[in-house]
Predict the structure.
Amino acid sequence: MLNKPLVKIGLSLTLVLSLTIVFNRLSVKPVASTQDSIEWLQQPKSVNDFTLISATGRFSNTHLKDHWTIIVFGYISCPDVCPTSLFELSLLAKKLEQEQILQNLNYVFVSVDPQRDTLANITQYVSYFHPDFIGVTGSLVALESLTQSIGIRFSASELAGSYTVSHSVYFSIIAPDGRLYGRFKPNFDVEKLAQELKNVETANESNLFKNMTNEK
């Protein structure tokens, strides 16, 4: 049986080390962003049926309907890319909140390391970055059903006693109809991305966005 205090200490140490890397990177003189805008799909893509689990219970396709969702994949012990991506996403979330843009937007972190990441630890982990971030995970079969349909790859392997996880790093944008409409990479410009999402919200309210994507 796992010692809960030791698990909490381990999670805290992982987070401290991860955030140290994040803040060290942010303290370096910034370079021009390589991702200033969203890559919109020519045709929206349906998301395969899947069932994962969150702190509040089942998390499935129905939880992607009637609101916008940004999904990012990773795992708790990821040393740099995952915490950096979540930190950047928290900055975007705060910007959108301040500007009252897409107020029905959900942010979902999907752990692709269910062997080591418990749901309780995932929930605690994402809450460090933003209280509204949702943490989910599930079986490898369920994870593959979701990732394959939105173009995300991940793998886990054990070699010479070392367990490693690799995954694609994209923020996937799911529209209120539950389909994948676009994606963007880390190292994005918060101001520009927020403005683009504002434009999308305005277009969506007048059905221009839906018509635009259907015509491509």
